[in-house]
Amino acid sequence: MSRRLLGIALAAGLAATLTGCGSGGSASDNTLEIWIRQAPDSDSAKTAQKLADAFTKASGVKTKVVALFDDFETKLNQQAAQKQLPDIVINDTAQLGAMHSQGWLQQVDKTKLAGGDKLSERAWTAATGSDGKFYAAPFSAQAFALIVRKDWREKVGMEAPKTWDELAALAKAFTDKDPDGNGQADTAGFVIPAGTKRGYASWYASSLMYANGGDFIKAAGGGKFTATVNDPKTIEAVQYLQDQFCKAKSVNPGAVSNDTTVTHEVFEKGQGGIYLVGPYVLARFVNSIGTDKIEVIPVPKGPSGGPGTLGEGENVYMMAGSQMQDAQKKFAEFAISPDGQRIGMNKDANGAIVRLPVNTQVDLAAERQDPRWKVFQESYANAVYAPPVPNWAPIRQDSADSINALWADCAKNVQTTMGELNTKLTQELQSQKAS
Questions:
Q1: Contact between 310 and 383 (Cβ < 8 Å)
Q2: DSSP 367-420
Q3: In sequence order, what are the beta bridge partners of 23?
Q4: 141 and 313 in contact (C-beta within 8 Å)?
Q5: pLDDT, tens digit, for every residue of 315-341?
Q6: 21-25, 47-51, 331-335: which has the minimum mean pLDDT?
Q7: Which of 133, 348, 359, 374 is most enclosed, with most CB atoms within 10 A?
Q8: CATH for 3-142+312-384, among 3.40.190.10, 3.90.550.10, 3.20.20.105, 3.10.270.10?
Q9: Sign (positive or negative) of CA dihedral 113, 117, 121, 122
Q10: pLDDT at position 203, please?
């Protein structure tokens, strides 16, 4: 039996085992256990605790917040194997397929979820499984934009980029024209989390692909999908990025091994001046770099498509096997309520766990005074979520491996590599019975 088929068989067995079993061990003392993918003791973890405390005050339900960042999914697997899943998981929208395929998630009837009718329909798409049913409550949304060193841009005498050519020219100027004025060749244009861990290379490239009208896979109707990474628009976007690594050499050194944790620090240390990223680091950079030194610019429309950018966020997942199903539902309803959303937004301070509110009754401008948030909000109108395949994780990982290889090895041909990747993704879709 292949490893993939073995994994599917084990997941099916695990799903059956979870049915009816207790979760987390927290139900014995009537405490709702909530896991969130954030670093322990971080500002975001503290915001999650504020949300839980406010829920407890409103409902009387005791809570325990567990903040984990490294190997989050691995630790969830370990808990599942021990029949000790937490009651609630707040995690990436792109993880829905993987968790649903393992039988971890309860189905959600949005018509019976108080406040569910107040959430944006775009946000609900991120809570939809491959079968068209809902398996989470939307909690936070985000789109991507360019955070740029405004002081550097003014130093090199250039306008905010509106095309890909202008963006490449700005990156080249940041690399070659000593924008920090220290007399050393120690700056780059782009800072990129181009490593393969958790699929970061693919995650980063996706916004440029969507801005050019490209994609990884396309819906073919009836819950089926077709791989499309060999489409000319997708190839054009990946070629553009390879050119920044290999021809212009305007990307920060070491990018092909970096994840976002390292890349945040690279940007903060002034080693690069253009970061395509979500709004969750805006407050951090305002504090660490200076509010007058950074600006937010929309991702320019590609030469063959756009506008578009990656859309993602976090869902509240109600985990299977919990003995506290009523409390699970109450927490989800509180998290999506205006009060819960505002607590998660944390105004303009660092530590937001709600980036863009999904509740349409929450006015972002009334909660946050920094006008740069508006760029991210406007970009969300054209955001593209990961499609509801049974399991998006291997598709993102296969894509990251191939795209990273193109950036790490300049001799590799983009069209050939993307053609090979298209074959891999087709095979993956077949293995998921989604082709």
A1: yes
A2: H---TTHHHHHHHHTTEEPPP--S--HHHHHHHHHHHHHHHH-TTS-HHHHHHH
A3: none
A4: yes
A5: 999 999 999 999 999 999 999 999 999
A6: 21-25
A7: 359
A8: 3.40.190.10
A9: negative
A10: 96
